[in-house]
User: Which sequence fits this backbone?
């Protein structure tokens, strides 16, 4: 079965070790050490092509039921009707399949970038999308469904929404339909849960979303109801890159086979998704099976009345999944910070002591990196660089993005630290015959180090939290793991507190570590605090 | 005929247009202790700092142990060749500062043992053994494991002398080595300098300790307003100075 994996962390640079080898020859260099750490930590994510290449399919598990979502009974497993469909296609093609997590509104760029081979994530076939990617024949046909509060009798159809606030999903067909009307306020959401929640609490007057979303989200909520007739018609297709013509054909023929054999309808029935449009499109007017076991099972898990005790036990179940995200967060933050410290130090030194050109470059680097948002830097690195031939895995892109961003701040920390060391220290070192570089390395920088530990620790804690931004480049770290879990279990509060606690706990040891380092780098202070008891010479 | 280990000719230096040295000529004999005296601002510290390149002079020539450092006013900027020789010059001149300038992040032993390893590639074990010897010589045998902040001023300055000696310089330069010390701690530093003098180490000292200058120095140089006014045997200078300015200056001290 499908396991949620931090997929696609494979290095995509051609011949990655070659550029590392040259630095490994000098084992004293701190840079080497840092790169070795990077390699060791990344080692498990190096994947090698197997004999039968898995079909990578991109989707957003945060999209929730019934597309693809974490099984409420076993959150480390991804289930959903699209999982069933892709499993069946993989079976027909004789290829294993592998799920790749990607933010929904970034699915098309992710496909073009080569993060995965196909998109199967409730992606509606629209003319403008079809300009960029190819679509398979539809595997599901449905419509938009309006939902309102149960006690609201003003709205009976989309026409009644004039002048009202209507919520929908960002980038969806429903959003375009609503905006085309022009007589109502459209509020677009990243996730359907937040939209329906805002409808419940009165921030919205209505929500228009794909029927199957309404079915799975409005159904279990007594305070909401579906109203009005089918709005529009929409088709879900499998997205394939323009150049992958052969793959598109294979998928189309697999889908046709599944329609002819009734396998596709069986899957849709299991999830209670059969619509009149489907009947028309499949040419199948039979009433179909009433056994919607997947739907039933999901509704049962949703409607379960939970005692405090079973709720507590449930939280325990979340911990491994959040823990996995926490490990990614930790790995990412530690490597990024190590790099930021090294890069920052070199920029601080060139800014202070380098020749004119390098100095100007350092200043320009620091100012431009500091002056632009991390989010845009991440997008540039992940989606922009492939256009000039540099394709980094999400993990590497995230590490470099955070490292570059924070190196600018570290550079200024060091500059402040170095400048606060009295000039006489440099003079004393030079008078002893040290070169400028030796004076920096053995006299100035070690003294500056202890001064900058508090601000650097500060920055590490900030980086730890900023690392949540990398979910936009498909990394499933702690925050992403939290929002995925919260969207399935409709629990933004409890799981949110759990995730916040994890951030706090991750940061805590480093705060202690920094305090130890501060003492280590200030030996004379340490000597003073132990007062009369003096260490004896060896 | 005495051998001149330091020869200074026509040394000129100005700070942003304010002339400090107006053409200094000075010879220093090897194995002697030479004391530079003179009123504040007369340029004696600047002269000393020029001797190991902490200040770049504008014009003139300095020769230390045969190494010649020369500036021509036609080349106003210090060029690469000048910097290269300055670096060589530092290898043969040791400097002791008014404010000691020990490295606070190193123990006393490391302060003395690390620089030879860093600069000259002396094996650490050898450098440490040598450092222990030098620290014993300056009376800090049992302070080797302490950090500078744990030492008294006098102890720090003695450690700084040991640090300078560890580089095996041809000449030791002192820039007011006792001015920052409590009066009670001055003598322990002067004692060390006196002992080094008896061992035949060349020392050039800028100081206001006139008693020390008179008792220990082989030669006194009096500077005023950027020039050498008078130089010679301490007995002569202190009892019968030729120049009225010298007499005027010494009156306050004697």
Assistant:
């Amino acid at each position: 079965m499908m396991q949620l994996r931090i997929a696609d962390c494979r290095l995509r640079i051609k011949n990655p070790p070659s550029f590392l080898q040259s630095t490994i020859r000098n084992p004293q260099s701190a840079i080497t050490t840092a790169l070795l750490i990077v390699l060791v930590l990344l080692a498990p994510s190096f994947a090698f092509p197997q004999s039968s290449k898995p079909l990578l399919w991109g989707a957003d598990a945060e999209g929730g039921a019934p597309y693809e979502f974490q099984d409420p009974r076993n959150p480390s497993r991804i289930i959903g009707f699209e999982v069933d469909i892709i499993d069946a296609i993989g079976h027909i093609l004789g290829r294993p399949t592998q799920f790749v997590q990607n933010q929904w509104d970034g699915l098309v760029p992710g496909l073009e970038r080569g993060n995965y081979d196909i998109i199967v994530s409730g992606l509606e076939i629209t003319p403008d999308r079809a300009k960029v990617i190819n679509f398979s024949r539809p595997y599901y046909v449905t419509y938009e469904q309006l939902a309102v509060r149960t006690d609201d009798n003003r709205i009976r159809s989309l026409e009644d929404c004039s002048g009202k606030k209507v919520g929908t999903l960002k980038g969806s067909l429903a959003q375009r339909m609503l905006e085309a009307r022009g007589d109502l306020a459209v509020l677009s959401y990243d996730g359907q849960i937040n939209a329906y929640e805002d409808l419940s609490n009165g921030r919205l007057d209505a929500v228009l979303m794909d029927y199957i979303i309404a079915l799975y989200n409005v159904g279990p909520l007594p305070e909401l109801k579906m109203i009005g007739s089918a709005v529009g018609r929409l088709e879900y297709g499998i997205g394939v890159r323009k150049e992958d013509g052969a793959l598109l054909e294979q998928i189309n023929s697999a889908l046709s086979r599944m329609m002819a054999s009734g396998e596709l309808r069986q899957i849709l029935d299991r999830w209670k998704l059969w619509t009149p449009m489907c009947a028309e499109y499949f040419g199948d007017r039979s009433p179909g099976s009433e056994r919607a076991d997947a739907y039933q099972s999901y509704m049962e898990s949703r409607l379960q009345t939970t005692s405090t005790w079973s709720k507590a036990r449930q939280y325990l179940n979340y911990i491994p999944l959040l823990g996995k995200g926490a490990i990614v967060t930790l790995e990412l933050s530690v490597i990024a910070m190590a790099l930021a410290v090294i890069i920052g130090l070199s920029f601080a030194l060139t800014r202070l002591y380098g020749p004119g050109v390098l100095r100007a470059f350092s200043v320009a680097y620091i100012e431009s990196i500091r002056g632009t948002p991390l989010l845009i830097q991440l997008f540039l690195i992940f989606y922009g660089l492939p256009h000039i031939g540099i394709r980094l895995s999400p993990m590497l892109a995230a590490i470099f993005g955070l490292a570059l961003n924070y190196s600018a701040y570290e550079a200024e920390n060091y500059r402040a630290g170095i400048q606060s060391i009295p000039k006489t220290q440099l003079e004393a070192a030079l008078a002893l015959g040290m070169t400028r570089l030796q004076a920096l390395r053995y006299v100035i920088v070690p003294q500056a180090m202890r001064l900058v530990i508090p601000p650097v620790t500060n920055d590490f804690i900030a980086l730890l939290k900023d690392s949540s931004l990398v979910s936009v480049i498909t990394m499933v770290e702690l925050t992403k793991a939290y929002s995925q879990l919260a969207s399935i279990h409709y629990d933004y509060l409890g799981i949110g507190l759990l995730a916040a606690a994890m951030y706090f706990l991750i940061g805590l040891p480093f705060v202690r570590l920094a305090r130890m380092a501060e003492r280590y780098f200030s030996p004379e202070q340490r000597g003073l605090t132990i007062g009369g008891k003096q260490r004896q010479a060896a | 005929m005495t051998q001149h280990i330091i020869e200074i000719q026509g040394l000129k230096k100005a700070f942003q247009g304010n002339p400090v040295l107006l053409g200094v000529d000075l010879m220093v004999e090897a194995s002697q202790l030479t004391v530079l005296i003179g009123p504040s601002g007369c340029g004696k510290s600047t002269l000393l700092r020029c001797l190991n390149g902490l200040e770049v002079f504008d014009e003139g020539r300095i020769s230390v142990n045969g190494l010649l450092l020369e500036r021509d006013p036609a080349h106003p900027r210090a060029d690469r060749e000048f910097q290269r020789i300055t670096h060589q010059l530092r290898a043969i001149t040791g400097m002791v500062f008014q404010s000691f300038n020990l490295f606070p992040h190193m123990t006393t032993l490391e302060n003395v043992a690390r620089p030879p390893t860093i600069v000259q590639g002396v094996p650490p074990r050898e450098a440490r053994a040598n450092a222990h010897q030098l620290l014993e010589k300056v009376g800090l045998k049992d302070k080797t494991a302490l950090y500078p902040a744990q030492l008294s001023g006098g102890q720090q300055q003695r450690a700084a002398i040991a640090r300078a000696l560890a580089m095996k310089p041809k000449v030791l330069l002192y820039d007011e080595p006792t001015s920052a010390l409590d009066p009670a701690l001055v003598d322990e530093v002067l004692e060390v300098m006196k002992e080094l003098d008896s061992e035949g180490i060349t020392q050039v000292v800028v100081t206001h300790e006139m008693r020390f200058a008179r008792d220990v120095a082989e030669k006194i140089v009096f500077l005023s307003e950027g020039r050498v006014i008078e130089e010679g045997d301490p007995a002569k200078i202190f009892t019968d100075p030729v120049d009225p300015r010298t007499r005027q200056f010494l009156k306050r001290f004697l």
